Amino acid sequence: MKWFIVVMLLLSGCVSPRVLERQGIITAAGFDKKGKMYEGGSVMLSFQTTGSSMSEVIEATNKTSKGLRQDLEAQTSHDLGSGQIRAVVYGKELAEEDGIFGLTDTLQRDANIGSLVYLAIAEPSAKQVIKSKKHEDTPDIGTYLYRLIEKNLRSESLLAATLHEFIHSYYDVGKDPVLPCLSLRDGKPIIEKVALFRGDKFVGTVRLDESFYIKMLASEYNTGLKNITVPRDDVAPLLIKKKGKKVNIVFNEIRTKRKIKLISQKPAPHFRVTVKLQTEILEMSEKIKPIMQANIHVLERAIEKQMKKEIEQLLSKLKAYNTDPIGFGQIYDHSVRRLQLTDKQWYKLYNNAKIDVDVSVSILRTGTID
Amino acid sequence: MMKTPNERLSINAYLVFFLVHTAQIGLGIVGVQRVIFVEARQDAWIAVLLSGLWIHLVVFVICQTLKLSEHDNIFSLHTFVYGRVFGWIANAAVVVYFLMAYTSILLGYVEMALTWMYPDFPLWGGALILVILTVYALYGGGFRLVAGVSFLTFFMAIWVVVVVFQPLKYAEWIHLLPIFEATPKQMMNGVLKTSYTMLGFEVLYIIYPFVKEKERVHRYAQIGVMLTTFLVAAVTVIAIAFFSPKQLDVTIWASLSMFTIVKFSFIERFEYIVIPLWLLVILPNLLMFMWAMTRGGKALFRIKQKYGLFLFACLSFAVAIIFEKRATINEFIDQVGWYGFWLSFVYPFFLYVFVRMKTWAKGSTK
């Protein structure tokens, strides 16, 4: 039986070997619409025997994304491997007109590609973002985009950008996906806005400070920074000067707990949203009296009032786009027995849904000074 | 009637726990979530628990049956109850079941490994490797090796359970609500569909004579079944929370897809660890069912298990290479589940009644 083991060991080398120097590792891909075809570009990272690496963008136009892949293969001497793909960028036009589910579906179907790939929308086109030469100290644009999105997910107002989360929300009835929206500033890709979807179609964007609220309502939010502008009258007892219009407050280390409850179904769905937020004050645009136990509530109530207003504005904006990234429909579907909600039904209900917002803020600390 | 094996061939009772548990856990658990979910929706995990309860009852009945007479395995029980000719047919049915079960695991695993890791490797090649492995192991080791393998692989694979908790980061527990929405019919279908995953405890009928302390077999078998039910229910709950309903409807290997989320700094794609590791999980299945077949061969044709091994190995390989497409493999696995359901979930009750009647009739004629 010894020879048997030897043969087994020898045979294990038979499945196609992959030599690192011959591999072209795709780290990012971008898709745009061009007439009826897709225009795609990939960032290919290859390693030289000397130990250095180089990245190059290759482009092609085809009807399907795997067809693109074939065209790309024709343009390089390396074997393209998509196992290390980090970010996939879709052009705004493509996402708006065709939807991107078909393209994300192939990613999911391909066992080579993990579920933690980041997706993003690019304005004006994916091509420009992919071809950007400005990627700080990272070896290639794919890694840059990956780190950019990852950092903003972890600590800032960005939410849900992985392939898994996109497909999850896409399939979930009563919840729409969101993705980061990349734009170029001086030729460098940055995140400025968040793209909203209905199904898999791009419908509009919100600013990052608005997406803060989406993140807060859709999931538990921890850490991060938020700037809020409150009317002067609301915080008047605290102020030393009596002039000026608005007061800016920046707070930090935010922890929130949210609860969304369906109160009644008829005539229209009625939700109550309660948000509990704990935070510390980082900066104020004006000099104020020392904050004490007695007057801290003035500040808290002022922030609550402003936040409530902003959340309500955001919700009506989302309704206007007819998109539900927070997942009210999901809550509706799972709270009502014997109900098979469809997306179509939900959008109808969503338009008339009544949503009460209740925010309670507690300021834990005020930094190193009172 | 077969002789009870001698002391040298028999095993300790606690090994029954490993044998039953590892024979149950196999390929099913990788993709069971979708199958039950399609039937019972968010109540799928309840269907798993119900199915588990049912199995506890079946295991109890099996042990009772084996205690009734001096016939302590299914093949000799069949000849005892049905006589020579009908008994032979019943035994052949059991052997065919084991053959189908063996082949379905073989195909299912190879297909999974090919889809995820080696798309350019032929199906027959993968099947051949596994068949040769089975023959190699059983030719040298026999039953005691089966027991040893299930003991070892249990510990080599159980740690994966810890990693399953990492996907919980993305879980949305609201998917589980409302509870008890499934109609009794949906629930029943859910229980039925769970059966393929939970099959394997019927090996008790065959390993029973090989256990030293017969009175403790029942206890260890029950513990084994309990662990299986718990694991299957846990992965079902996690999958329901992790995937959105429509997504789960189309995800073939839900457990594996959940592993694509798992990421460590030293290994980015954890599923590439899990798939080869799963060979260890299905190995006891393969060995157990092949060994059961050879026992059946002995009862049917009075051939030595050594020769039966080669015969059945060739046979299952031949059956395996007929299949090419996933659709047909799925259909085949469904068939096995259906067959197994009747044989293992329902038939033991009837067998118990028959044996009872037979022993009573025999007793009264004396």
Automatic annotation (TrEMBL), chain A:
InterPro entries: GerAC_N, Spore_GerAC-like, Spore_GerAC-like_C, Spore_GerAC_C_sf. Pfam families: Spore_GerAC (PF05504), Spore_GerAC_N (PF25198). It is found in: Membrane. The keyword rRNA-binding does not apply. The keyword Lipoprotein applies. Keywords: Germination, Lipoprotein, Membrane, Palmitate, Signal. GO terms for biological process: spore germination. Residues 193-367 form the Spore germination GerAC-like C-terminal domain. Gene3D superfamilies: Nutrient germinant receptor protein C, domain 3. It is a lipid-anchor. Residues 18-183 form the Spore germination protein N-terminal domain. GO terms for cellular component: membrane. NCBIfam families: spore_ger_x_C (TIGR02887). Belongs to the GerABKC lipoprotein family. This is Spore germination protein B3. It comes from Anoxybacillus thermarum.
TrEMBL record, chain B:
InterPro entries: Spore_GerAB. The chain crosses the membrane at residues 12-32, 44-68, 88-109, 121-139, 145-165, 194-211, 223-243, 250-267, 273-294, 306-324, 336-355. It is a multi-pass membrane protein. It is found in: Membrane. The keyword Transport applies. GO terms for biological process: spore germination. The keyword Nucleotide-binding does not apply. GO terms for cellular component: membrane. Keywords: Germination, Membrane, Transmembrane, Transmembrane helix, Transport. It holds the Pfam family Spore_permease. NCBIfam families: 2A0309 (TIGR00912). Belongs to the amino acid-polyamine-organocation (APC) superfamily. Spore germination protein (SGP) (TC 2.A.3.9) family. This is Spore germination protein (Amino acid permease). It comes from Anoxybacillus thermarum. The lineage of its organism: Bacteria, Bacillati, Bacillota, Bacilli, Bacillales.
